[in-house]
Amino acid sequence: MPSGTEPQLGREEIGAARRRLILDGLGIIVSAAGFGFVYGLTARTAGHFSPVEAMAMSLIAFGGAAQFAAIGYVSSGLAWPAIGLLTFLLNARHVLYSAALAPWFRGRSTAERALAAHLLTDESFALAIAHFRRLGRYDAIGYWYPAVVTTLIPWNLATFAGVMLGDAVVEPSRFGIDVIFPAAMAGLAVGLITSRRELVAALAGAAIGVTASLLISPTIGIIAGGILGPVIGLLVPPAAGKDGKDGPDGTGLPKLEDMHP
Question: What phi and psi values does residue 245 have, to the nearest 5 degrees?
């Protein structure tokens, strides 16, 4: 679309898109609550975190898998600089998420973008980017509903519950809680695959991640899959458009104005 313009959408179209967003987010609420509950249990049973520290990590770090990894690193006695580096690499994929969302946040205030960056998760990214693409423009509800309602609030409430229960539930896997997050992420990934590049990136990332996790460690698997999967996807030639060219200008890439929400 031309730079500086936004599609003129009616109330019905916007309302329909928002209703779909809310419905899609319901499953994520369950996922975030389940995973947050397991995190709270893990933090308390590890014996190195007080309830206040466990809750503070969910509010200040809010890093999902990185929080689980940090617990393991602390329990193993790893030095703090190494913990910081490893957890940074674990969440490095968020840099790619931010780059994809940046055009939609163009013109927003620095404070809003900073808060959005802090609350950025796999789930909020997937829901928000899909919503923005449906509307063809930025919609505040499209980001803050996934970021706050579907992830931040249920994650922290569930963390509190897990922390308070402590040793009452020793093995979350016995109840099947540990499969909630992977299942939800798989569902989100399927919804984001719209081209052969994305399909190759997803399959390659999954294969590399699983292999590295089994041979080395889950942390290395997540980092390797998250970085190498997209790189391999970029090596795949983009699909040809209706005019026989690879993209709007024949380069295989969208024009900058087409990326502007």
Answer: -95, 165
Q: What is the pTM of this model?
A: 0.67
Query: What's the one-letter identity of residue 35?
Result: F
H or E element, residue 53: helix 51-60
In a 3-state reduction of DSSP, which class is residue 1?
Answer: coil
The H-assigned helical ranges of 61-195 are 65-75, 80-90, 93-101, 110-118, 122-135, 140-144, 153-165, 180-192
Q: Determine the Cα–Cα distance for residues 145 and 149; give it in Å rounded to an integer.
A: 5
CB-CB contact of 75 with 84 (8 Å)? no
Angle, helix 65-75 to helix 11-45, in steps of 10 degrees: 10
39 vs 149, higher pLDDT:
149
Residues 140-165 pLDDT 10s: 999 999 999 999 999 999 999 988 88
